[in-house]
Automatic annotation (TrEMBL):
Protein name: (Mediterranean fruit fly) hypothetical protein
Keywords of the record: Cell membrane, Glycoprotein, Membrane, Receptor, Signal, Transmembrane, Transmembrane helix
InterPro entries: Insect_Ionotropic_Sensory_Rcpt
Transmembrane segments: 319-345, 357-375, 395-417, 586-610
Chief location of this protein within or outside the cell: membrane
One GO location term (cellular component): plasma membrane
Organism of this sequence: Ceratitis capitata
Subcellular location field: Cell membrane
Signal peptide from the UniProt entry: 1-18
Membrane topology, from the record: Multi-pass membrane protein
Length: 649
């Protein structure tokens, strides 16, 4: 059957034939089948890469060994100076690299081996010395021990994790050799009964995993408690702390951590170069290839959005303009022109008019009749009984429309004046540009804009964004909720701000789904290049996702920021009563009722007193009027009697 292993073996036949036959048939060469089968039983090796010793005519493998290895597994034969393609290390999940050790070891002779390992520094390597250790002299043993230490130190310097070595007589000696990083670098001599490649990261033996927090909220939170002790928490702190605890390690911070001081890539990249830290308790996006920096598996996909302030309340003088610009104004305009046009047309059909008279008639209907009727103002309309039914129907419809529009306008005004309107929200970049609002962005984030915007968009974005030199200052302003400006923000921090705003009388900021810089940005943990912790950390991240720990820690960041006093606690929160409502809680109603009864009683007696006083004054006035009338009548009677006497005389 033509398998992948057989195809790869056929492709490398010329390399196999390039070796002299004497290299594989030297008498007395040890059979490595035992150690290889042992490793294969542990890890199920998919491919072998064999690199011969340099500048020697002898090989550490015989023809029989090569034939056994290539029976069911891919085997690739290389010279020390050959270049190994990276596909061998990337395509095969389990790869065993067998290296024949030359008599005179030099680090540059292992360049091909390092090239084969590519980025997978946890690749499994087997070093084979073409020498016997058990029967060697003391001087030979010292030389072999020195060479062994030199090789393993070089492997540790190159961050190779799984390396073992055997001598030609390993079966009779009964041991293989390796080294360990934990708790510090040391050589180990183990019996063949033990596993050749155990999970070394599973037991760090208390080794310190060196870290530094970047203090980007809410991933990494640093603050000082009441005793001035620096405390570190946050999502990534919990993740890395859990990683260290599960692997019997300790999470340490070798560099002095100062609260409220952002640590950017310019600060922690040199720490990777001089091997001061192993990873950063922070986040990083995709920055491409870097000789000192690598990244873990993706933790989250975050959105880089813009947080906008809630629009201010509209002035009372602008309410009418707002109503006219709404659907109400459009409906009012339609009614004005429709009724004016219909009434003018009806009049023109009954009686001929010139164009000038028709225009004047239309303006008269529009301003005097229809406008007053639509807004519910009184108007005087006269038409004889013989007027057509259509005209009566039009005026009745105009009257009903006026009642409806007047009621609707009054209700809208009362509603808008009771609860003040706000200016409309900004929902697109075009509206943001027209509004002239400035968006604050830190000098650390501003260079990333060309990654997400083209040259044309960047021109007008330069007029929108305002660069803030201090990242810490802008980060504090984002969660302060007192400033009235727009700012960039990542979605996890916006979730914290949004939850915090739910406790306020009204929100202070909002986001729009159409205003964002980028969505779905993969976020990972920055780690040292070729770190021995990368594979274990990635496994920890996958497990945390599968069991829901990442969701739990994400929900806890709000409480972490409250505990660190990072949120603005000076904002007045809404007090919410949780007790049951009882009758005594309504005492103020009885107080108002008593005051009302007392006032009504006083008003009642005041009205009685006023009525009695008014009645008395009225009676006295009537009596005075009767007396005056009596005197007036007597005077009139005397004058009449006097006139009669004079006439008789």
């Amino acid at each position: 059957m033509l398998t992948k292993a057989n195809i790869l073996l056929i492709c490398n036949l010329q390399l196999l034939f390039a070796y002299p036959a004497s290299n594989w048939t030297v008498p007395g060469v040890s059979n490595v089948s035992f150690i290889v089968e042992k490793i294969n039983a542990e890890r199920r090796i998919n491919a072998f890469v064999i690199i011969n010793a340099y500048d020697t005519s002898e090989s550490c493998l015989s023809d029989e060994d090569v034939r056994r290895l290539s029976a069911n597994t891919t085997v690739k034969l290389l010279r020390p100076s050959s270049k190994c393609s990276n596909s061998s290390g990337d395509d095969n999940r389990e790869l065993l690299l067998i290296r024949c050790i030359p008599e005179n070891f030099k680090p540059e002779l292992f360049e091909a081996m390092i090239g084969c390992s590519a980025r997978k520094r946890d690749i499994r390597m087997l070093f084979i010395w073409n020498s016997e250790y058990a029967t060697a002299t003391i001087q030979s043993r010292l030389k072999l021990d020195k060479q062994q230490k030199l090789i393993f130190e070089y492997c540790a310097e190159m961050n190779l994790l799984n390396v073992i070595g055997i001598y030609r007589d390993y079966l009779s000696e009964g041991h293989f050799y390796t080294f360990s990083y934990f708790p510090d670098f040391h050589l180990e001599r183990k019996p063949l009964s033990e596993d050749c490649f155990p999970d070394r990261i599973s037991d760090l033996k208390g080794t310190a995993i060196r870290c530094i927090p970047d203090q980007i909220h809410p991933w990494s939170i640093v603050w000082a408690d009441h005793n001035e002790n620096v405390q570190i928490s946050g999502f990534l702190t919990k993740l890395l702390q859990q990683f260290a605890t599960r692997n019997n390690g300790t999470l340490t911070f070798p560099v002095t951590v100062v609260p409220n001081r952002f640590v950017g890539i310019q600060s922690w990249l040199p720490l990777f170069q001089n091997n001061t830290i192993d990873m950063v308790c922070g986040i990083i996006g995709s920055l491409g290839e870097n000789p000192y920096l690598d990244e873990s598996a993706t933790i989250f996909l975050v959105d880089w959005i813009i947080m906008l302030p809630i629009p201010q309340r509209m002035a009372d003088s602008e309410v009418y303009l707002y109503m006219l610009n709404s659907a109400l104004g459009l409906f009012l305009l339609i009614l004005l022109f429709v009724f004016s046009f219909v009434l003018t047309l009806e009049s023109l059909l009954l009686q001929r008019h010139t164009k000038r008279e028709g225009c004047l008639l239309f303006i008269s209907f529009l301003t005097n009749t229809v406008l007053r009727g639509v807004i519910g103002q009184p108007s005087s309309l006269r038409f004889p009984h013989s007027v057509r039914l259509l005209k009566r129907f039009l005026y009745i419809t105009l009257f009903v429309s006026g009642i409806f529009m007047s009621t609707f306008i009054s209700a809208s005004l009362q509603s808008y004046l009771t609860s003040s309107l706000r200016y409309p929200r900004i929902n697109s970049f075009a509206e943001l540009r027209r509004a002239g609002m400035k968006v604050k962005i830190s000098s650390y984030e501003y260079p990333l804009l060309p990654t997400y915007f083209g040259p044309k968009s960047l021109k007008w974005l330069e007029r929108v964004f305002t660069v803030v030199p201090s990242f810490d200052e802008l980060q504090n302003q984002r969660i302060n909720l007192k400033n009235r400006f727009a700012t960039t923000i990542i979605s996890p921090l916006w979730s914290v701000v949004s939850r915090y705003q739910s406790n306020l009388p009204q929100p202070a900021f909002y986001t729009s789904k159409d205003i964002y810089i980028s969505k779905g940005i993969p976020i990972a943990v920055p780690i040292q290049k070729h770190s021995i912790y990368k594979k274990a950390l990635n496994k920890m991240i996958y497990n945390a996702h599968s069991v829901g720990l990442t969701q739990l820690w994400s929900n806890q960041v709000y409480d972490d920021m409250l505990a660190a006093k990072k949120l603005n606690t000076t904002v007045n929160l809404v007090s919410r009563r949780k007790e049951q409502l009882e009758l005594r809680d309504l005492y103020w109603l009885w107080w108002l009722y008593g005051v009302g009864v007392l006032l009504s009683t006083l008003v009642f007696f005041a009205e009685l007193w006023y009525h009695k006083r008014s009645t008395k004054k009225a009676n006295q006035s009537e009596e005075n009027e009767r007396v005056e009338q009596y005197e007036l009548n007597m005077q009139t009677f005397r004058r009449v009697a006097l006139r009669r006497q004079l006439r008789d005389y």
